Amino acid sequence: MKKSEALMTTPTEQNVKTTNVKDVLAYLADKFPACFSLTGEAKPLKIGIFQDLAERLQTDESVSKTQLRQALRVYTSSWRYLEATKEGIARVDLDGVDGDLIDASQAEHASKTLEQSKAKAAEKRKARIAEAKAKQVNTVADKPAYKKNQNKKPIPASKEAKVNQKPARAEPVAAKPVTLQPVVMSAVVAGAKVLIKLGQNPMPATVLEVNKDDVTVQLGSGMVIKTRQDSLYLA
């Protein structure tokens, strides 16, 4: 197999061992395609699916139970999954076999959770924009204004020479632009230290959660925001 072909293959038991949640979900979608999916409309999962996974993968050392719990939590809290959790839709097991139907209370809970999640995302986006604008305002340097006195009498040569002896005002040196290097997707895991560019200045942040292409990070100030993986850079 060529190197380029190897990079395009889906996760296998050999390379999932130390990967992040995104790779574990890709592994589950590859191993149980009738149950898990990464794109399109999601299928509501059978209640107790974790026990089924633990039993099916009990001899699989490439993924741990902790990774499975975290992956299921991320999968079932995604907007795509919550939108698919509607009344009357059948839940599926690992083999895609229909089971219990979603009742009204379960559908209502999923709808409220989706609404709250989108509201939080909107608030974080608004706070991020406000913070970026505030930083841009603070970086604008105030330039001193000089008044020209056109009606003053000519200064005698001796006094003019003394005036010219004053040291010249040093011009501020422009800061060199910082070159940022994008973070490799496989390095974006919970707890990873990264830089996120808000406004003109990159800020250090810690990755809290990875959900598909969306990443939740915490700034040094304690503020938690959601951004895209392509907005993160090496710390």
UniProtKB/TrEMBL annotation:
Alphabetically ordered keywords of this record: Chaperone, Cytoplasm, RNA-binding
SUPFAM superfamilies associated with the record: FinO-like
InterPro entries in alphabetical order: ProQ, ProQ/FinO, ProQ/FinO_sf, ProQ_C
Compartment(s) where it occurs, according to its Swiss-Prot or TrEMBL record: Cytoplasm
Keyword Oxidoreductase: no
Pfam family, one: ProQ
Region Disordered, annotated ranges: 148-168
Domain of life from the UniProt record: Bacteria
Segments forming domain ProQ/FinO: 16-130
Functional summary from the UniProt entry: RNA chaperone with significant RNA binding, RNA strand exchange and RNA duplexing activities.
HAMAP family noted in UniProt: ProQ
Annotated family: Belongs to the ProQ family.
Designated name of the protein: RNA chaperone ProQ
Organism: Rheinheimera muenzenbergensis
Gene of this entry: proQ
